[in-house]
Design a protein that fits this description.
The protein has 357 residues and is α+β, with helices and mostly antiparallel strands. Helix content is 37%, strand content 24%. 47% of the residues are buried. Bound molecules: ligand DP6.
Length: 357
Protein backbone atom coordinates (compact mmCIF):
# COMPACT_ATOMS: atom_id res chain seq x y z
CA UNK A 1 0.00 0.00 0.00
CA UNK A 2 1.31 3.48 -0.83
CA UNK A 3 2.23 5.60 2.19
CA UNK A 4 -0.07 8.42 1.00
CA UNK A 5 -2.99 6.04 1.53
CA UNK A 6 -2.22 5.81 5.26
CA UNK A 7 -0.59 9.17 6.07
CA UNK A 8 -2.48 12.33 5.09
CA UNK A 9 -0.54 15.04 3.19
CA UNK A 10 -0.40 17.24 6.32
CA UNK A 11 1.24 14.34 8.16
CA UNK A 12 0.73 12.42 11.41
CA UNK A 13 2.02 13.61 14.77
CA UNK A 14 2.87 11.94 18.03
CA UNK A 15 4.03 13.49 21.27
CA UNK A 16 5.33 11.78 24.44
CA UNK A 17 6.88 12.76 27.73
CA UNK A 18 9.27 10.14 29.06
CA UNK A 19 11.36 10.12 32.26
CA UNK A 20 14.93 9.10 32.97
CA UNK A 21 15.72 6.14 35.21
CA UNK A 22 18.41 5.10 37.65
CA UNK A 23 19.63 1.52 37.80
CA UNK A 24 19.96 -0.26 41.14
CA UNK A 25 21.26 -3.43 39.49
CA UNK A 26 23.62 -2.16 36.81
CA UNK A 27 23.81 -2.92 33.12
CA UNK A 28 27.50 -2.79 32.26
CA UNK A 29 28.62 -4.93 29.35
CA UNK A 30 26.78 -5.73 26.12
CA UNK A 31 27.00 -7.77 22.93
CA UNK A 32 25.31 -8.08 19.56
CA UNK A 33 22.75 -5.41 18.78
CA UNK A 34 22.57 -3.80 22.21
CA UNK A 35 21.94 -6.99 24.18
CA UNK A 36 22.92 -6.92 27.86
CA UNK A 37 25.40 -9.30 29.45
CA UNK A 38 23.28 -9.36 32.60
CA UNK A 39 19.80 -8.39 33.71
CA UNK A 40 19.43 -4.93 35.26
CA UNK A 41 16.77 -3.36 37.48
CA UNK A 42 15.95 0.33 37.71
CA UNK A 43 13.54 2.84 39.13
CA UNK A 44 11.90 5.16 36.67
CA UNK A 45 12.06 8.77 37.83
CA UNK A 46 9.28 11.31 37.86
CA UNK A 47 10.52 14.82 37.33
CA UNK A 48 13.54 14.42 35.06
CA UNK A 49 12.00 13.88 31.65
CA UNK A 50 12.21 14.54 27.92
CA UNK A 51 9.30 15.75 25.80
CA UNK A 52 9.46 14.74 22.14
CA UNK A 53 7.22 15.51 19.19
CA UNK A 54 7.52 13.62 15.93
CA UNK A 55 5.77 14.53 12.71
CA UNK A 56 5.82 12.17 9.73
CA UNK A 57 4.77 13.35 6.28
CA UNK A 58 4.77 11.27 3.10
CA UNK A 59 8.16 11.57 1.42
CA UNK A 60 8.60 12.87 -2.13
CA UNK A 61 11.18 10.08 -2.46
CA UNK A 62 9.48 7.02 -0.92
CA UNK A 63 11.61 3.99 -0.11
CA UNK A 64 14.73 6.02 0.71
CA UNK A 65 13.77 7.70 3.95
CA UNK A 66 13.57 8.80 6.56
CA UNK A 67 14.61 12.31 5.73
CA UNK A 68 15.23 13.89 9.12
CA UNK A 69 14.95 17.38 10.57
CA UNK A 70 16.00 17.40 14.22
CA UNK A 71 15.61 20.20 16.74
CA UNK A 72 16.86 20.04 20.32
CA UNK A 73 15.35 22.70 22.55
CA UNK A 74 14.31 24.69 19.49
CA UNK A 75 17.71 24.64 17.77
CA UNK A 76 18.71 22.63 14.71
CA UNK A 77 21.42 20.24 15.97
CA UNK A 78 23.63 18.46 13.48
CA UNK A 79 25.68 16.35 15.93
CA UNK A 80 22.57 14.90 17.61
CA UNK A 81 20.84 14.63 14.23
CA UNK A 82 23.60 12.35 12.92
CA UNK A 83 23.16 10.00 15.89
CA UNK A 84 19.36 10.04 15.58
CA UNK A 85 19.64 9.48 11.81
CA UNK A 86 21.79 6.38 12.42
CA UNK A 87 19.36 5.16 15.05
CA UNK A 88 16.39 5.61 12.68
CA UNK A 89 18.13 3.65 9.94
CA UNK A 90 18.91 0.86 12.40
CA UNK A 91 15.27 0.48 13.48
CA UNK A 92 13.71 0.64 9.99
CA UNK A 93 13.42 -3.18 9.79
CA UNK A 94 10.81 -2.95 12.61
CA UNK A 95 9.28 0.40 11.63
CA UNK A 96 8.90 0.11 7.88
CA UNK A 97 6.94 3.33 7.46
CA UNK A 98 10.18 5.23 8.19
CA UNK A 99 11.45 4.46 4.68
CA UNK A 100 8.58 6.38 3.13
CA UNK A 101 8.44 9.54 5.25
CA UNK A 102 10.09 12.86 6.02
CA UNK A 103 10.42 13.03 9.77
CA UNK A 104 10.66 16.09 11.94
CA UNK A 105 11.71 15.47 15.54
CA UNK A 106 11.57 18.18 18.18
CA UNK A 107 12.78 17.35 21.63
CA UNK A 108 13.77 18.98 24.90
CA UNK A 109 14.62 18.02 28.48
CA UNK A 110 13.22 19.62 31.61
CA UNK A 111 16.54 19.13 33.41
CA UNK A 112 19.79 20.97 32.70
CA UNK A 113 22.25 19.27 30.37
CA UNK A 114 24.85 19.46 33.13
CA UNK A 115 22.75 17.74 35.79
CA UNK A 116 24.37 14.36 35.27
CA UNK A 117 20.97 12.78 34.59
CA UNK A 118 20.88 10.12 31.88
CA UNK A 119 19.29 12.07 29.03
CA UNK A 120 19.77 9.20 26.59
CA UNK A 121 17.32 7.10 28.65
CA UNK A 122 14.54 9.70 28.64
CA UNK A 123 15.34 10.92 25.11
CA UNK A 124 15.50 7.55 23.40
CA UNK A 125 12.42 6.23 25.23
CA UNK A 126 10.39 9.32 24.30
CA UNK A 127 11.45 9.04 20.66
CA UNK A 128 10.74 5.30 20.56
CA UNK A 129 7.27 5.85 22.02
CA UNK A 130 6.50 8.53 19.40
CA UNK A 131 7.67 6.24 16.59
CA UNK A 132 5.79 3.20 17.88
CA UNK A 133 2.59 5.25 18.38
CA UNK A 134 2.79 6.38 14.75
CA UNK A 135 3.54 2.84 13.63
CA UNK A 136 0.51 1.54 15.55
CA UNK A 137 -1.75 4.18 13.99
CA UNK A 138 -0.46 3.43 10.50
CA UNK A 139 -1.03 -0.29 11.03
CA UNK A 140 -4.48 0.37 12.50
CA UNK A 141 -3.73 -1.13 15.94
CA UNK A 142 -4.34 0.31 19.40
CA UNK A 143 -1.70 2.94 20.25
CA UNK A 144 -1.53 2.36 24.00
CA UNK A 145 -1.68 -1.40 23.78
CA UNK A 146 0.82 -3.48 25.84
CA UNK A 147 2.29 -4.66 22.53
CA UNK A 148 3.04 -1.06 21.50
CA UNK A 149 4.88 -0.43 24.79
CA UNK A 150 6.83 -3.64 24.39
CA UNK A 151 7.84 -2.63 20.87
CA UNK A 152 8.76 0.86 22.11
CA UNK A 153 10.99 -0.72 24.77
CA UNK A 154 12.61 -2.92 22.09
CA UNK A 155 13.19 0.09 19.81
CA UNK A 156 14.45 2.29 22.69
CA UNK A 157 16.98 -0.41 23.59
CA UNK A 158 18.54 -0.15 20.14
CA UNK A 159 19.00 3.60 20.73
CA UNK A 160 20.43 3.20 24.23
CA UNK A 161 20.24 0.09 26.40
CA UNK A 162 19.09 1.72 29.61
CA UNK A 163 16.36 3.63 27.70
CA UNK A 164 14.30 0.47 27.30
CA UNK A 165 13.61 0.51 31.07
CA UNK A 166 12.15 4.05 30.94
CA UNK A 167 9.16 2.89 28.87
CA UNK A 168 7.52 1.70 32.12
CA UNK A 169 7.04 3.29 35.51
CA UNK A 170 8.08 1.99 38.91
CA UNK A 171 10.66 -0.80 39.09
CA UNK A 172 11.57 -2.35 35.76
CA UNK A 173 13.84 -5.18 34.69
CA UNK A 174 15.69 -5.51 31.42
CA UNK A 175 17.40 -8.79 30.61
CA UNK A 176 16.39 -12.39 30.92
CA UNK A 177 16.29 -13.56 34.53
CA UNK A 178 14.74 -16.70 35.99
CA UNK A 179 13.06 -14.75 38.83
CA UNK A 180 11.23 -12.39 36.46
CA UNK A 181 8.59 -14.10 34.31
CA UNK A 182 8.46 -12.69 30.79
CA UNK A 183 11.83 -10.94 31.13
CA UNK A 184 13.88 -10.60 27.96
CA UNK A 185 17.21 -9.33 26.70
CA UNK A 186 15.33 -7.49 23.94
CA UNK A 187 13.03 -5.29 26.02
CA UNK A 188 12.25 -4.33 29.60
CA UNK A 189 9.28 -5.45 31.68
CA UNK A 190 7.69 -3.74 34.68
CA UNK A 191 7.85 -5.64 37.97
CA UNK A 192 4.58 -6.91 39.39
CA UNK A 193 2.72 -4.83 41.97
CA UNK A 194 3.91 -6.83 44.97
CA UNK A 195 7.41 -5.48 44.35
CA UNK A 196 6.41 -1.92 43.53
CA UNK A 197 5.24 -0.61 46.88
CA UNK A 198 7.43 -2.29 49.49
CA UNK A 199 8.95 0.96 50.75
CA UNK A 200 6.21 3.39 49.76
CA UNK A 201 7.26 6.17 47.40
CA UNK A 202 11.04 6.06 46.94
CA UNK A 203 12.90 9.35 46.72
CA UNK A 204 16.05 9.96 44.68
CA UNK A 205 17.97 13.10 45.62
CA UNK A 206 20.70 13.59 43.04
CA UNK A 207 23.77 15.21 44.57
CA UNK A 208 25.67 16.94 41.78
CA UNK A 209 29.34 16.61 42.65
CA UNK A 210 30.54 17.47 39.15
CA UNK A 211 28.24 18.61 36.35
CA UNK A 212 30.94 18.12 33.67
CA UNK A 213 30.76 15.73 30.76
CA UNK A 214 31.45 12.03 31.27
CA UNK A 215 35.09 10.88 31.32
CA UNK A 216 34.13 7.74 29.47
CA UNK A 217 31.15 7.32 27.14
CA UNK A 218 28.72 4.50 27.90
CA UNK A 219 29.65 2.85 24.62
CA UNK A 220 33.37 2.83 25.47
CA UNK A 221 32.64 1.79 29.07
CA UNK A 222 30.57 -1.23 28.00
CA UNK A 223 33.34 -2.09 25.52
CA UNK A 224 35.86 -2.29 28.36
CA UNK A 225 33.95 -5.24 29.79
CA UNK A 226 34.99 -7.29 26.74
CA UNK A 227 38.08 -9.11 27.90
CA UNK A 228 37.85 -7.64 31.41
CA UNK A 229 39.46 -10.15 33.81
CA UNK A 230 36.50 -10.04 36.23
CA UNK A 231 33.69 -9.79 33.67
CA UNK A 232 32.32 -13.33 33.90
CA UNK A 233 32.09 -13.14 37.69
CA UNK A 234 30.52 -9.68 37.54
CA UNK A 235 27.75 -10.81 35.16
CA UNK A 236 27.01 -13.81 37.37
CA UNK A 237 27.00 -11.71 40.52
CA UNK A 238 24.65 -9.13 38.97
CA UNK A 239 22.10 -11.91 38.42
CA UNK A 240 22.40 -13.04 42.06
CA UNK A 241 22.13 -9.44 43.27
CA UNK A 242 18.96 -8.98 41.24
CA UNK A 243 17.41 -11.99 42.99
CA UNK A 244 18.38 -10.60 46.39
CA UNK A 245 17.06 -7.14 45.58
CA UNK A 246 13.74 -8.61 44.49
CA UNK A 247 13.55 -10.52 47.79
CA UNK A 248 14.23 -7.26 49.63
CA UNK A 249 11.46 -5.52 47.70
CA UNK A 250 9.03 -8.34 48.27
CA UNK A 251 9.65 -8.59 52.00
CA UNK A 252 10.27 -4.87 52.62
CA UNK A 253 13.76 -5.64 53.96
CA UNK A 254 15.42 -2.21 53.74
CA UNK A 255 18.81 -3.32 55.07
CA UNK A 256 19.13 -5.93 52.35
CA UNK A 257 17.89 -3.42 49.75
CA UNK A 258 20.51 -0.86 50.84
CA UNK A 259 23.33 -3.40 50.98
CA UNK A 260 22.68 -4.70 47.47
CA UNK A 261 22.08 -1.24 45.98
CA UNK A 262 25.35 0.14 47.33
CA UNK A 263 27.28 -3.01 46.47
CA UNK A 264 26.08 -2.75 42.85
CA UNK A 265 27.11 0.90 42.58
CA UNK A 266 30.57 0.18 43.94
CA UNK A 267 30.92 -2.93 41.75
CA UNK A 268 30.22 -0.81 38.66
CA UNK A 269 33.01 1.55 39.67
CA UNK A 270 35.28 -1.35 40.62
CA UNK A 271 34.88 -2.66 37.08
CA UNK A 272 36.05 0.67 35.70
CA UNK A 273 38.94 0.92 38.17
CA UNK A 274 40.16 -2.47 36.98
CA UNK A 275 39.54 -1.99 33.24
CA UNK A 276 42.39 -1.63 30.77
CA UNK A 277 42.64 1.36 30.40
CA UNK A 278 41.29 2.17 33.87
CA UNK A 279 39.02 5.04 34.84
CA UNK A 280 38.48 6.69 38.19
CA UNK A 281 35.02 8.17 37.81
CA UNK A 282 34.52 9.21 41.42
CA UNK A 283 35.65 12.53 42.80
CA UNK A 284 37.16 13.12 46.24
CA UNK A 285 33.77 14.58 47.20
CA UNK A 286 31.97 11.45 45.98
CA UNK A 287 33.95 9.43 48.52
CA UNK A 288 33.40 12.03 51.22
CA UNK A 289 29.63 11.93 50.67
CA UNK A 290 29.56 8.13 50.70
CA UNK A 291 31.32 8.14 54.08
CA UNK A 292 28.91 10.78 55.41
CA UNK A 293 25.91 8.69 54.34
CA UNK A 294 27.34 5.61 56.06
CA UNK A 295 27.99 7.53 59.29
CA UNK A 296 24.59 9.19 59.23
CA UNK A 297 22.87 5.85 58.79
CA UNK A 298 24.84 4.39 61.69
CA UNK A 299 24.00 7.30 63.97
CA UNK A 300 20.33 7.74 63.12
CA UNK A 301 19.22 4.35 61.78
CA UNK A 302 17.64 6.21 58.85
CA UNK A 303 16.57 4.17 55.84
CA UNK A 304 18.86 5.80 53.32
CA UNK A 305 21.37 4.48 50.81
CA UNK A 306 23.19 5.56 47.68
CA UNK A 307 23.75 4.50 44.13
CA UNK A 308 26.03 5.88 41.42
CA UNK A 309 25.89 6.16 37.68
CA UNK A 310 29.04 5.89 35.57
CA UNK A 311 30.18 9.22 36.99
CA UNK A 312 30.85 11.15 40.21
CA UNK A 313 27.28 12.17 41.16
CA UNK A 314 25.42 10.43 43.95
CA UNK A 315 21.82 9.30 43.96
CA UNK A 316 20.55 9.27 47.53
CA UNK A 317 17.69 6.78 47.75
CA UNK A 318 15.21 6.74 50.65
CA UNK A 319 11.51 6.11 51.28
CA UNK A 320 9.18 9.14 51.53
CA UNK A 321 8.60 8.34 55.22
CA UNK A 322 12.27 9.12 55.95
CA UNK A 323 12.21 12.57 54.34
CA UNK A 324 12.14 14.53 57.59
CA UNK A 325 15.10 12.58 58.91
CA UNK A 326 17.05 12.93 55.66
CA UNK A 327 16.65 16.72 55.23
CA UNK A 328 19.49 17.57 57.67
CA UNK A 329 21.74 15.06 55.88
CA UNK A 330 20.99 16.70 52.53
CA UNK A 331 21.73 20.09 54.02
CA UNK A 332 25.04 18.88 55.49
CA UNK A 333 26.08 17.47 52.09
CA UNK A 334 25.54 20.73 50.20
CA UNK A 335 29.17 21.91 50.67
CA UNK A 336 30.38 18.80 48.79
CA UNK A 337 28.05 19.42 45.84
CA UNK A 338 28.87 21.65 42.89
CA UNK A 339 27.39 25.05 43.85
CA UNK A 340 25.38 23.11 46.45
CA UNK A 341 23.37 21.62 43.59
CA UNK A 342 20.91 18.85 44.43
CA UNK A 343 17.96 17.68 42.35
CA UNK A 344 15.09 16.02 44.18
CA UNK A 345 13.07 13.41 42.39
CA UNK A 346 10.93 10.38 43.21
CA UNK A 347 9.97 7.12 41.60
CA UNK A 348 7.41 7.83 38.90
CA UNK A 349 4.66 6.20 36.92
CA UNK A 350 6.39 6.25 33.56
CA UNK A 351 5.82 7.94 30.21
CA UNK A 352 2.71 9.94 29.34
CA UNK A 353 1.23 10.50 25.90
CA UNK A 354 0.64 14.20 25.29
CA UNK A 355 -1.73 16.05 23.00
CA UNK A 356 0.36 17.40 20.13
CA UNK A 357 0.31 21.13 19.58
C1 LIG B 1 26.04 2.81 34.19
O1 LIG B 1 22.34 2.67 28.47
O2 LIG B 1 23.94 4.60 28.59
O3 LIG B 1 23.99 3.82 33.58
O4 LIG B 1 23.44 1.05 25.71
O5 LIG B 1 25.61 2.15 25.22
O6 LIG B 1 23.53 3.53 25.38
P1 LIG B 1 24.27 2.29 25.85
O7 LIG B 1 24.59 2.50 27.38
P2 LIG B 1 23.73 3.13 28.55
O8 LIG B 1 24.46 2.47 29.80
C2 LIG B 1 24.02 2.74 31.09
C3 LIG B 1 24.98 2.23 32.06
C4 LIG B 1 24.70 2.62 33.50
C5 LIG B 1 23.96 1.50 34.24
C6 LIG B 1 22.51 1.31 33.89
O9 LIG B 1 21.80 2.28 33.58
O10 LIG B 1 22.07 0.15 34.02
Amino acid sequence: MSITAVIPAEGLMSCWKSPSNIALIKYWGKHGQQLPRNASLSITLNQAYTVTRVRAVPSADPGNGPNLTFRFEGELQTAFATRIGEFLRSVTPWLEFLKDVDLSVETGNNFPHSAGIASSASGMSALALCLCSLDARIRGVEEEDPETFRKASFIARIGSGSACRSVYGGFTVWGEHTDVPGSSDEYAVPLENEYQSAFGVLHDSILIVDPGTKKVSSRAGHGLMNGHPYAALRFEEAGKNLSKLMKALESGDWDLFARITEHEALSLHAMMLTSDPWFVLMHPNTLRIIEEIKNFRKQTGAKVCFTLDAGPNIHLIYPAAELELVVPLLKSLEPFCHNGQQIHDTIGEGPVKLTCR
